[in-house]
Amino acid sequence: MTGEDNILKLVDAEESESGEYHLQDQVGFILRRAQQRHVAIFSSYISDLTPPQFAALAKLRDVGGDTSQNQLGALVAMDAATVKGVIDRLRARGLVELSRHDGDRRRLLVSLTVEGRRTVDALIPLATRITEETLSPLSPKEVATFLKLLARLA
């Protein structure tokens, strides 16, 4: 079934007069299935990091320096407990390091190590392929519409 077929199926479900509830037609169910597909594609290209770990590394690369643990969590849409676990695992692998903020000793700053930078730089081309493969059932016009609509939901 193509992405267009799924969209048409969803539209048909919305137009249904019966008002019956069908799980497979619900937005949460469809989003979860799409997420599962994306994670499977991600894992086929990048097997030694989880998507949240990669997101943290990629965002640290983007910000280009130290950022607080809390700020990093906000930037990658992770709660404090989740980002702490992600950072702890990345730190154990030598990909990030923690330091104390000069002005506020309670504040932890996270930065990429040399190995972390090398790792994320090497993975960026794979991440691009993952995105392309995830979106491959859609036409370029559908991709633009889909991403625009998803951004409105987020």
From TrEMBL:
PROSITE patterns: HTH_MARR_2 (PS50995). One of its GO terms (biological process) is response to stress. SMART domains: HTH_MARR (SM00347). GO terms for molecular function: DNA-binding transcription factor activity. InterPro entries: HTH_MarR-typ, MarR/SlyA-like, WH-like_DNA-bd_sf, WH_DNA-bd_sf. Transmembrane segments: none annotated. Gene3D superfamilies: Winged helix-like DNA-binding domain superfamily/Winged helix DNA-binding domain. It comes from the Bacteria. Residues 24-154 form the HTH marR-type domain. Coiled coil: none annotated. PANTHER family: TRANSCRIPTIONAL REGULATOR, TRANSCRIPTIONAL REGULATOR, MARR FAMILY. This is MarR family transcriptional regulator. It comes from Borborobacter arsenicus.
